[in-house]
Amino acid sequence: MDIEIKNEKENKALERKEVTFLVKYDKATPSRDEVRAALAPKVRSKQELIVIDFMYPSYGTRSANGSAKVYANEAAMKIEPAYKHARGKPKPKEGEAAPAAKKKEKK
Predict the structure, then answer these.
(1) Is 39 exposed, middle or buried (0-12, 13-18, 19+ CB in 10 A)?
(2) What pTM value is reported for the model?
(3) pLDDT in tens, 46-64
(4) Domain that holds residue 61
(5) How many independent structural domains does the chain possess?
(6) How far apart are the C-alpha atoms of 75 and 15, rounded to whole Å?
């Protein structure tokens, strides 16, 4: 798998970098976790501080265009919705409680 960074924009107000990239692969489309792991050294950041927004495979080619947000720290990541943090991670089994899943109680 090869990742080429197409565009990198600094967003100082939200303490993040917004990155667009092209992923070239040989077999199946890589998972978000695999892309996050390969993208981390390219943007000089920890894997935990990267949120993949989207990845769209190109029809007939072994490539996908995508977008990611690279945060400066954990506190800055709180602006990102919880469902985006959960994407690409294994779902908890029936007996286990969902981590950080907050449900509003009806009154």
Answers:
(1) buried
(2) 0.76
(3) 998 999 999 999 999 999 9
(4) 2-74
(5) 1
(6) 9
